UniProtKB/TrEMBL annotation:
GO terms for molecular function: transferase activity. Belongs to the class I-like SAM-binding methyltransferase superfamily. It comes from the Eukaryota. Pathway: Secondary metabolite biosynthesis. This is Methyltransferase domain-containing protein. Keywords: S-adenosyl-L-methionine, Transferase. InterPro entries: Meroterpenoid_MTases (IPR051654), SAM-dependent_MTases_sf (IPR029063).
Length: 265
């Protein structure tokens, strides 16, 4: 895999302008003390550098401004458990780390949270995006790690919840099964996330970010079947549904899911 992406902005899903709405403005004003007058330039600058690193659709479409963890069917449970009952959460494949910041914004204490990503570049860029590098580094919230590295995985203390936004779908069918197995080593209660799905499931070429790889897009049924087979029903899909997402240039189907452990850890 190459280390740098093309800076091509003609890709079908690439959207020039950041979708700044009142939620985004309020978040950045309150969390990062960035006034609305400076927000557009700040977002464009960070996204440009992220895009030059990797042509991930979530960067091209500005999906990182969705703070997608809020759409998890168990978001209120996660907030309640982390704020009031000592539960912990890992954001795996966190990239810029927007979902960790959403949890902090919603009142979760930093000692309940950890984010992991393959690329230190994205973690560092997240510090700039959210203007919180000092506190995040001091509390060691973000760490570089590869889901396929057993030495790394063995050193990670499992959390009650694992969030995986736009992560499992990065891989082909057999690799996704391995990723699911590995995620269950990191989670005690539930794994939840959102990713590209398809009502007609199948493997699609990852045309833009990693052209030589394939990405399996699941329907709720094939996603459930994968988890049942991989965990022999020790983990069960409690919720999985598709929703069509529109942006200015393209549409896709998104699969939102919760997988819950039926084992006591
Ligand atoms: C498409 S981005 C999604 C980012 C974020 N979770 C979101 O929802 O916007 C996928 C992230 O997974 C990370 N990643 C890819 N392969 C990985 C691996 N083997 N181990 C850990 N992280 C990985 C990438 O560096 C990237 O930041």
């Amino acid at each position: 895999m190459s280390t740098e992406a093309s800076a091509d902005k003609n890709i079908s899903f690439y959207v020039n302008e950041p979708p700044i709405n009142s939620d985004v403005e309020t978040f950045f004003a309150n969390y990062a003390s960035i006034p609305s007058s400076a927000l557009r330039e700040h977002l464009i600058n960070i996204r440009q550098r992220a895009w030059e690193k990797r042509n991930y659709p979530c960067l091209g479409r500005w999906a990182f401004l969705d703070f997608s963890i809020q759409q998890s069917p168990i978001y209120q449970e996660i907030l309640d458990q982390c704020k009031n009952h000592g539960a912990t959460l890992i954001d795996f494949g966190c990239c810029l780390g927007q979902d960790i910041r959403q949890l902090v914004y919603d009142g979760v204490h930093l000692d309940r949270l950890r984010g992991y990503d393959l690329e230190s570049f994205f973690i560092e860029l997240g510090y700039e995006l959210f203007c919180d590098g000092e506190v995040m580094k001091e509390n060691k919230i973000f760490t570089v790690g590869d889901i396929f590295d057993d030495d790394f995985l063995n050193g990670v203390e499992p959390a009650d919840y694992v969030y995986v936004g736009a992560f499992i779908h990065l891989f082909d069918t057999p690799t996704q099964r391995e990723v699911c197995r590995r995620l269950t080593r990191l989670a005690k209660r539930a794994i939840t996330g959102r990713q590209v799905g398809a009502s007609i499931p199948g493997e699609y070429s990852r045309t833009f970010d990693f052209p030589s790889s394939k990405s399996m897009r699941h329907s709720p049924e094939t996603f459930t079947q994968m988890w049942n087979e991989v965990t022999e029903c020790a983990w069960q899909v409690e919720s999985a549904y598709l929703k069509t997402a529109y942006n200015m240039k393209s549409t896709n189907e998104r699969l939102t899911f919760v997988v819950r452990s039926h084992e006591q850890k």
